[in-house]
Design goal:
heterodimer, A: mainly alpha, MetI-like fold, about 0% strand, flat, B: alpha/beta, Rossmann fold, 6-stranded mixed β-sheet, 4-stranded antiparallel β-sheet, about 40% helix, about 25% strand, globular
Chain lengths: ~210, ~260
């Protein structure tokens, strides 16, 4: 019973870290995406460099750097802040690539038709390219989100009290080592299954609408 | 097909000394063209002659290196910087129909035609839909309004694309090989619509391989090869008595196959 309690206490934190990192990652991916699509060689190089740097270093190392390394003056990140920022930035790099791929999958004729019709750039992105790219991106986006849900456990290493952290503590205190981790595994599956089902459902539904 | 000769000689489209090259590869050399109001100009010629490029330069889907384009009084000089306002005005004056239709696949047929009216002309949803339905009815496609483009045949999609362009009230319609991606039988549906448009007095420039259309509907035939206009004039005269050896060769290839 106490076992379940430990996990249930960690559960909201797991969800919080995942949701916040994903939100931060999605927003931060946009300027990176703009850089990747920029005709300006310097901006492109800058974006490319940031993405490769973010992806090239293991997330756990980013969390350590942010948590233990950033303490300039009064600024000291809490474990949650460091966890969300670290995972969020890494997500931004991957999501920027996902979005870039989705945008380049939109047929060039869509741009041409929009230009020929005299659409503004805002209309082009919001009404034509955006919705089509988003549809293409949904499967990869949810796959990444499910991955992030599990990777949020990395935040346990800097003391964010999410599922794995709580499980670990319980295991050490009670001495019954392995069972709680099986339960934790079950909870992760229970969380990610509906996400996967939702994604597939959205995907097939949208395809049905536009397909022959 | 009998047509009333254009009453005025008001030139809707004027292209002067258009030139374009990709590096060493010259795609257009000194192309000039005038299109009177209410006339149909057919552009023919072998692949790679630059026909589509001329058409795409007219509404600046491609930017020429030099030359001038004037559509309905909106002048664009390739050498100078193009103002957004002038570009918008030019594109509003010219409706474009593409070889591959380029309908928006994620919108219903009705939205495809209504959205540009709302965004570009500022029409209300109701006004736009009313105009769209009027055009769809004219195209014989009123029952397709709520379908998605992928559920329509190629010929239907191309007619929807024509309706989408017409809905903005263009002064000239530019057709870029509108039937090339269609089965011959399906292409006929589209050609019929184009003939009706021509009969109603729409100014049209049509890049095509449809020799029947070029001969019977067009007022002016323009033959292009190697990035330049090599011959132009009355379609029947050009076809029966081509002055240029290159035209003769091309016409033999398309007519005597």
């Amino acid at each position: 019973m106490q076992m379940l309690q430990a996990i249930l206490i960690g559960l909201p934190m797991t969800i919080l870290v995942t949701v916040l990192s994903l939100a931060l990652g999605t927003v931060a991916a946009l300027p990176l995406l703009a850089g990747l699509r920029s005709g300006n060689r310097l901006l492109w190089l800058l974006s490319r460099g940031i993405i490769d740097l973010l992806r090239g270093v293991p997330p756990v190392v980013w969390l350590f750097i942010l948590y233990y390394g950033v303490s300039v003056g009064a600024l000291r990140l809490t474990a949650l802040q460091a966890g969300v920022i670290g995972l969020g930035l890494v997500s931004a790099a991957y999501l920027a690539e996902i979005f870039r791929g989705a945008i380049s999958s939109v047929h060039s004729g869509q741009w041409e038709a929009s230009s020929a019709l005299g659409f503004t750039r805002t209309t082009l992105w919001r009404r034509v390219v955006g919705p089509q790219a988003w549809r293409t991106a949904i499967p990869s986006y949810t796959t990444y989100s499910i991955g992030l849900l599990k990777d949020s456990s990395i935040a346990s290493t800097i003391g964010v009290a999410e599922i794995v952290y709580m499980s670990n503590q319980y295991a050490r205190q009670s001495g019954e080592g392995i069972l709680i981790f099986f339960i934790a595994a079950g909870v992760y599956i229970a969380l990610s299954l509906p996400l996967g089902i939702l994604s597939r459902h959205l995907d097939t539904k949208m395809r049905k609408v536009v397909a022959r | 097909m009998s047509r009333i000769a254009p009453v005025s000689t008001n030139l809707v489209v004027q292209v002067r000394n258009l030139a374009k090259a990709y590096g060493d590869h010259v795609v257009l050399r000194d192309v000039s063209l005038s299109v009177p109001e209410g006339s149909v100009t057919a552009m023919i010629g072998p692949s790679g002659a630059g026909k589509s490029t001329v058409l795409r330069c007219m509404n600046l889907l491609e930017k020429p290196d030099s030359g001038e384009i004037e559509i309905d009084g909106h002048l664009i000089n390739a050498g100078a910087k193009v103002s957004a306002r002038n570009l918008a005005a030019l594109r509003r004056s010219a409706g474009m129909v593409f070889q591959h239709f380029n309908l928006f696949p994620h919108m219903s047929v009705l939205r495809n035609i209504s959205l540009p009216q709302e965004r570009v002309l500022g029409r209300s949803r109701e006004e736009a839909n009313a105009k769209s339905m009027e055009l769809l009815t004219r195209m014989g496609l009123a029952d397709k309004a709520d379908q998605y483009p992928a559920r329509c045949s190629g010929g239907q999609q191309q007619r929807i694309a024509i309706a989408r362009a017409l809905a903005l009230g263009p002064r000239v319609m530019l057709f870029d090989e509108p039937t090339s991606a269609l089965d011959p039988e399906v292409g006929v549906e589209v050609l019929e619509v184009m003939k009706e448009l021509a009969a109603e007095g729409m100014t049209m420039i049509v890049v095509t391989h449809e020799m029947g259309f070029a001969a019977n509907v067009a007022d002016e035939l323009v033959v292009m090869a190697d990035g330049g206009i090599i011959e132009s004039g009355d379609p029947h005269e050009v076809m029966s008595d081509p002055q240029h050896e290159r035209t003769r060769r091309f016409l033999r290839a398309v007519l005597e196959r």
